[in-house]
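Fold it.
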Amino acid sequence: MRKQFYFVILIFLFAINTHAQNNSSFSAYKFVRFIQYLSGNYVDTINVNKLVDDAIIDILEQLDPHSIYISKEDVQAMNEPLEGNFEGIGVEFNILNDTLMVVNPISGGPSERVGIKAGDRIVAIDGKSITNIGLKIPDVHKLLRGPKGTKVNVRILRKGVDSLLDFTIVRDKIPIFSIDASYMAQPGVGYIKINRFSATTEQEFLEAMDKLEKQKMRDLIIDLRNNGGGLLNAAYELASYLFEPGKLIVYTEGRNSPRTDYYSHFRGRKVFKGRLIVITDEGSASASEILAGAIQDWDRGIIVGRRTFGKGLVQNQLPLPDGSMIRLTVAKYYTPTGRAIQRPYNHGNTREYYTDLEKRYYSGELFNKDSIHFPDSLRYTTLIRKKTVYGGGGIMPDVFVPLDTMYYTEYYGKLVRSGLINQFAISWVDANRETLKKQYPKFEKFNKEFQVNQAIIDELLNLAATKNIPRDEAGLKTSADELRIQLKGLIAQSLFGPGYYYEVTNTRNETFLKSLQILNNWDSYKYLVQ
């Protein structure tokens, strides 16, 4: 009798599946016939390819905020940050006064190997002038990027050299680093800032850990602010260096995707067992939330900052016949306690979804922890300490740090939005590079002795005035300290490399300073993890 029952159920399920497939096939046939009618009968000439692309985009927008269409032209650019490299000549650049300027050649890259230097102006590429033509960043990518092994000829204007210099650069793979900075925040405390989770993140993390452990690191701060995520594998592999093998880090599950568990496992290196702080904010999403959620659920470390973005949908990248792709949501992420990371969304209303951060600002959530309310139905308890945590929309930190707006004024906002602070820093370093290099051959000396004096501030503000941002003494008084630290960080970045920006600016960052305070006053906070 039981076998007959199971047989009937099997036939029923098969019938349902066949019916669904038939419906799908019929709908596909219906759509193809519709396109045929348009092509063969419509009164005017139409672009069928564009119509199909637009239809795919519209359909995906009705599903969820993270299922998207990627055109053939955009596939490579979308994948580069996840792959951790692209192929090109290897320079950090900026466009100043319609001129392409090398900010820094990437260490070990093809441009550095042939002698390209910071401050060089690229005035021609493959014999064609690129000055005063309204050059844009996408134009630069098209001109300088290309397959590994191909050559590009550039003509350089170099300060102090009378004639133009010609270089032939052989393109190569150029790394896109996922770790912005790693340094000793104070004796015994290491700091690592991760900007994304890519194919190279694990190796970069190991190199950073090796460097910090040689400097006698005992405790670690991992900064995930504004880390929008990336590869799931990169996040849980990194977690394996923070957890003993066998700990559930995350699991995924969907309608057609059975539950898949991801556990920490031995990676050929001893597990870091020191005290751990993870910094998050409203820009921390996806893979960042996976790592932060696992650390919180297992009471492995203290989460400091603000509630994360709340992106817990898993996408598969699926190719289409013309080389384009769709990223289709197939499952959801869950933390070890079973918390769903994804915050609520209305199907087809992506605008409302992406204005959530604006709502957080005006509701007061970014400034006051008490402004955040979770229903009891979303209450969970951590696996060791049994403290209360919540699901249903991001990871709520253990220690809340409000958004710091004490220094913010409308004047400062105009300077930031105009891009002038960054442009000025690059130009100022370019004009003073030789003097700065002689006076500050090492970052440590620069960080200790260099000050952004009033003359530098005045030079920036005079430039701003020429760009229709008149000087505002009241605004300057409130924002002066922040302006100085930003300029010093940007100058350090231009002189010594990107990571040094954070080593400078963190000295005034409230969330970073709170993290140090927690470690320095551990007895007052250890109840969160012990």
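The first helix runs from residue 2 to 41.
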